[in-house]
Amino acid sequence: MVDRHQHWEGVYRSKAADQVGWFQPHAASSLRLIEDCAGRDAHVIDVGGGASVLVGDLLDAGYRNLTVLDLAESGLAASRARLGARAQDVEWIAADVTRADLPAMAYDVWHDRAVFHFLTDAADRARYVAQVLKSVKPGGHVIVATFGPGGPLQCSGLDVVRYAPDVLHAEFGAPFRLVAHETEIHRTPSGGEQEFVYCYCRRV
Q1: Is 5 exposed, middle or buried (0-12, 13-18, 19+ CB in 10 A)?
Q2: What's the CA gap between 2 and 187, in Å, rounded?
Q3: Tens digit of pLDDT for each residue in 37-73?
Q4: How far apart are CA 38 and CA 21, in angstroms?
Q5: What is the pTM of this model?
Q6: Measured between alpha carbons, how far is residue 199 from residues 13, 14, 46, 115, 181 in Å?
Q7: Which domains does the chain carry?
Q8: SS (H, E, C) the chain
Q9: Is 204 exposed, middle or buried (0-12, 13-18, 19+ CB in 10 A)?
Q10: I need a labelling partner for 40 at 20 to 30 A (CA). Which of 63, 90, 109, 198 fits?
């Protein structure tokens, strides 16, 4: 079995942040979806944020209550270095999301682009959903993006699970009402294309 922590530490230590396959110069879709559902005072957690630029985009947009969680401390370090002094305005959590000690009813928005599809074990997915139920406020919003049906079968040397919108929503079940979904074709730094599906739900 792959040690996920060691694997992702190795990825971030061996590649520049803008050379990993999921890199975006700006997280346009994620930012738009968050802005559509939450004001600037919202408490937002970016799960698997690592070296993602989303936290910087959110700070630029005026969001003030931000948390970034990632399994790899080296990914978080890359984000903090990029943000400089602004990094002190963000809470950073280095942990496995399926086992992290997250606060109860703390977040208005849960955002995850490209973590959930790495959870190939059903028990891990169940633990992930339990974390969302614990830490997202009733009426809060959950934005999860995974590889779509036309996406790759592997990423960064690991198997993934691809999802159609209805199948992705079914993993979360009745406590989450599907508000909308959309498809995005992501162009990787190497020039390839990957199909992502974004599902936007509201916690009942």
Answers
A1: middle
A2: 27
A3: 999 999 999 999 988 999 999 999 999 999 999 999 9
A4: 28
A5: 0.93
A6: 31, 31, 15, 13, 4
A7: 4-203 (3.40.50.150)
A8: CCCHHHHHHHHHHHCCHHHCCCCCCCCHHHHHHHHHHCCCCCEEEEECCCCCCHHHHHHHCCCCEEEEEECCHHHHHHHHHHHHHHHHHEEEEECCCCCCCCCCCCEEEEEEECCHHHCCCHHHHHHHHHHHHHHEEEEEEEEEEEECCCCCCEECCEECCCCCHHHHHHHHCCCEEEEEEEEEEEECCCCCEEEEEEEEEEEC
A9: exposed
A10: 198
Q: Which tokens sit at 190?
A: 């190497």
pLDDT of 27 > 80? The answer is: yes
